[in-house]
Write a structure and sequence with these properties.
The chain has 14 helices and no strands. It is about 80% helix and about 0% strand.
Length: about 290
């Protein structure tokens, strides 16, 4: 059973990431823009991780300066860029469509992993990827004609998928030198500090007092939608091939669809059920 634990970490991360749409949409009601949400998520994640790792293991803070470009890659090039594009996409498309565009990322990961590390593209991986994309398409509502997408939304969605894929690539380089917690922390050090330049901190701070619900949503966004899944995913990535991890994390659109059903009372359609079965099948194929 021990060998399945890293896979479980990645799957759980995908489930937690599925909650992002819930927090983002509710914060948008109170006037938060995608840039504001990026700031809350990334800088909030940095603060929580700094306190957590300070008391848990301070050796996590030690890195060599020559390796810092890896974390510029995971933090700025990947996390800041993909979250900004993804949250923008969610304002122009449905949550399900945003999720399917984001989860074009396994394609990018698989291609880049093959070019950089000469990872083999096996029949098993191709089958799992095809089944995963079919599941995402099903959940999105494309087949049923319920697709909600604009050209700008499409571009930002594909962009979010590409930059999201880069986390697995830069993260794999960093994991050759550091433990998962160190990689996660320095990712958010770069992402959190950069986010201060993306949005207005004073505006975000003043917005926290609009309603008692805002700080609660913000804390949940940081803990449930950010810190926990990134720690779990990075820890799993240390032992799971990048391409496989990217596919396993595709539990996110399924999780997002189920949250829509349970929280917002959206109907459990056949497309959602089909999508869920496809994602679970892909997980089984890769086990």
């Amino acid at each position: 059973m021990k060998k399945y634990i890293p896979y479980l970490f990645v799957l759980t991360a995908g489930i937690f990431w599925g909650s992002l749409g819930f927090f983002n949409r509710n914060l948008a009601v109170y006037g938060f823009t995608p840039k504001d949400i990026v700031l809350v998520r990334n800088f909030g994640g940095l603060v929580v991780m700094t306190v957590l790792f300070f008391f848990m293991d301070r050796s996590i803070f030690r890195i060599k300066l020559r390796h810092f470009p890896f974390f510029i890659g995971t933090g700025i090039i990947s996390v800041v860029a993909f979250t900004l594009l993804y949250f923008t996409c969610q304002q122009h498309c449905s949550l399900a469509v945003s999720a399917i565009l984001l989860y074009t990322s396994p394609v990018f990961v698989m291609v880049m992993s093959t070019l950089i590390w000469k990872d083999k593209i096996t029949k098993q991986k191709l089958l799992a990827l095809a089944v995963t994309l079919a599941g995402c398409v099903s959940v999105s509502g494309i087949i049923g004609g319920n697709l909600s997408v604009t050209f700008f939304g499409f571009i930002t969605g594909i962009g979010s998928g590409f930059f999201y894929a880069l986390y697995s690539i830069f993260g794999r380089f960093a994991l050759e030198h550091y433990k998962p917690y160190t990689v996660t922390y320095y990712t958010f050090l770069c992402a959190g500090l950069t986010s201060l330049l993306v949005a207005s901190p004073s505006k975000v701070i003043s917005s926290l007092s609009i309603s008692p619900a805002v700080p609660v949503l913000s804390v949940c966004l940081v803990l449930i939608g950010t810190v926990l899944p990134f720690i779990l995913y990075t820890k799993g990535l240390a032992e799971v091939e990048s391409g496989k991890a990217a596919i396993l994390a595709c539990m996110e659109p399924v999780s997002a669809a189920l949250i829509g059903v349970i929280v917002f009372g959206e109907p459990m359609t056949m497309s959602v059920i089909t999508g869920l079965m496809c994602i679970l099948a892909a997980v089984y194929i890769l086990h």
